User: What shape does this take?
Amino acid sequence: MASTLESVPVVVAPPGLEGDLAIPPQATGLALFAHGSGSSRFSPRNRYVAAFLQQGGLATLLIDLLTSQEEEVDDVTRELRFDIGMLARRLVQTAEWLAGHPRAGALDIGCFGASTGGGAALVAAAQRPDLVRAVVSRGGRPDLAGPALARVKAPTLLIVGGRDHPVIDMNREAYDQLACEKRMDIVPGATHLFEEPGTLDEVARLARDWFVTHLRAR
Assistant: This one.
C-alpha cells in the first residue's frame, strides 16, 4: 500500500512555510528534509530520495524553510541559505509541529540535510536531542554547524561524493569534531549533486538503512 502524499501548511514562526508530508502504513520513523542552497521541496533529487525512504517504511516531510517572499530575496542576495541559525530554528519549530501532529507525532524524527541544510540539521540536533534522533547529511556542509558539532548526540551519517574533494575535506574536519555515534561514507565516482548513474540510489539506500536502524515508532 502506497503512502499518501499530503501538502500541508506547517505552523511555525514565522508563518508561511509549506511542506509535503507522506506517511506510509505502519511507518517506523520520519525523515525531515532540510534542503540545500537555493533548493526547495520540489528538488527532484530530494523527492527521489524521499520516495525511496517511503518504500522502506519511513514517513517524510519535504519542507521549504524559506517563505516565498524570502526565496525571492535569496535568489538575488544568496544570504538566507547560509543563515544556519535561522534554518536550524525553523527545523526545530517544524520538529515541534510534527511532534503534535495526529499521525506523525508517534514517530521518531531524523533530519536529512543537503548542502547547507546539512549544517542546519546538525545544529537542530544539538539544540533538541529529544526531538532529532538521527541525522543524514548528503553532500552537506556540516562544518557550518561550528561549535554545535561537539554537542550533537543523534547518530550521524555523512555521505559525500568521491569526486567532491573540497566537501570531502570539510566533512572529515566536521567528522572529527562529532562525539556521537557517527559514520562517513564516500560514494565512488559521485560529484556534489550525485548526478552520475546509480550514485543517488546509493545515497537513498544508505539514508534508508541509517534511519531504519536509529528511528522508531512509539
About this structure: The longest strand covers residues 4-10. The mean pLDDT is 89.
